[in-house]
Amino acid sequence: MVLGLMIIILGFWVWKLYQNKKQGEGEARALEKEKDELEQMLQSISAKAPASQSGLADYQQKLQKKKEQAKAKIMQMLKEKGKISNSEVAKALNISSATVRRYFDELEAENKAKQVGQDGRSVVYTAI
Predict the structure, then answer these.
(1) What is the pLDDT of residues 1-26, one digit of tens each?
(2) I need a labelling partner for 36 at 20 to 30 A (CA). Which of 7, 27, 42, 75 fits?
(3) pLDDT (tens digit per residue) in 57-84
(4) Which domain CATH number covers 20?
(5) Can you state the percent helix, strand and coil of the chain, rounding each to 5?
(6) Which run of H or of E encompasses 93?
(7) Would you tell me how many other CB atoms lie within 10 Å of the CB of residue 113?
């Protein structure tokens, strides 16, 4: 009886480790994708206007446009589902959790979204 319980606990522990590893790999892929997109954006702007102020302005404008598009998608998800978590958005938009947190912080500052819960997996966001 005790041996069976220990086997079940060990199996659950191994499964949980596997899930954490899988989530970490997904987060690493999302960060790598973001890095590659930013590098491509910078290269395309540098090729058009090398070392100029307009090149930097173009880069910042493209970053802002990308951010606004992502925030619009987040708001659409909020309206469709009512409440969403950080990890749901990260998976849906294929961006890192850190980026999602920054976007949610901005949406909260704009009074468009509200955090429900204090920390960890219990945190979800709702539209205001």
Answers:
(1) 888 888 888 898 888 888 888 877 88
(2) 75
(3) 777 888 899 899 999 999 999 999 999 9
(4) 1.10.10.10
(5) 80, 10, 15
(6) helix 86-93
(7) 23
